[in-house]
Amino acid sequence: MNINIITLISEIGYHGATGAIVAYLIGHRKMANKNVSKLLLFGFLAGLLPDLSLPLTLVTDNATIINNFYLYGHSLFVAPSLSLGLAIVSRSFLPETKLSLLWVTLFLSLLIGHLFMDFLDNGLSLLYPLIDSTDIGLNILTGSDGFIVIPFLILIVLLGSFQQTEKKKWQTTIIIIGLCITTAYIGLRGYSKIQLQNQLDNEFPNGQITLEPTSGNPFTNKQWTYVVDSGYLSISGEASFSNVSELKRELRTHSGPKLLLKEISVGDEKYFISTQSFIDENVEVPFNYDEESLYVYQLNQKTQNLELVDEGTKGEILAKYDPF
Description:
The chain crosses the membrane at residues 6-27, 39-57, 69-89, 101-120, 140-162, 174-192. One of its GO terms (molecular function) is hydrolase activity. Keywords: Hydrolase, Membrane, Transmembrane, Transmembrane helix. By secondary structure, the protein is α+β, with helices and mostly antiparallel strands. The chain has helices at residues 5-27, 36-48, 53-56, 63-73, 79-91, 99-120, 146-162, 168-203, 311-320; strands spanning 208-213, 224-230, 233-239, 244-253, 256-266, 269-276, 294-299, 306-308. An eight-stranded antiparallel beta sheet has the order 1-2-3-4-5-6-7-8, with helices on both faces. A hairpin with a 4-residue loop joins strand 3 and strand 4. Helix 1 (5-27) crosses helix 6 (99-120), helix 2 (36-48) runs antiparallel to helix 5 and helix 5 (79-91) crosses helix 6. The protein is elongated.
């Protein structure tokens, strides 16, 4: 696992700043103004705490150790213990604050700042080891979504700049505005996913659909990618917030995937003209294929498997139907 700059920015903005904001909202009224910066720091650390596996990669390449740290660090059952440990450490710097308040504050910073945000992202091992699944979540955001990272980074900078003043009501107002905007955006993405899922379900009622967020920029047309697995056929494409755009169709054959060029029905029989699946989806399919580079498959109606036709049938199909 390599730590790149995008991952670090995501961790800081996605988790750390959210954890700091949660800690501020819960605990700032119950401590001296001079200690708010310490509260922000420990809330920030609580938001990052489940990802202990990231810095661990700097000291070991043992995949088992790293994976176990990740799984247990993102478990709801382990979160209270992690936050208690951090609360005990933080009380050395905030001795006038009750341990119980620090524990609750940092637990919620960890829960909302990290586990909840990962739940909105690509999922996590929320119920490990009771349930082994590592992708429990809604999968409506990306870990580097600019709309989420930037507002929270701005919020934490504002909190840091204001923490020496007495204008705490302005700090809270800024946080509430930022949270409202962010919540609206999350709601928009959730609604978008539901609409697109319904659209794909209606178009491919028998297909297994995978819809993934893909863009860190909320202002581009490519917000989602999708794959429809329909037995012998795999369909991939991309989508904006409301519209899908199919990119390519691939046949699943015994000799590997083939790019589908044309589907033909002759009576009750179905034929598929295809070629090697190595064409870039952003490059227009050329029109100068020779017959040797094309494959013609027939769908076996009983087994629903694709079978390569003989050369005679291939010649007849290609002569009668233009694959392009």
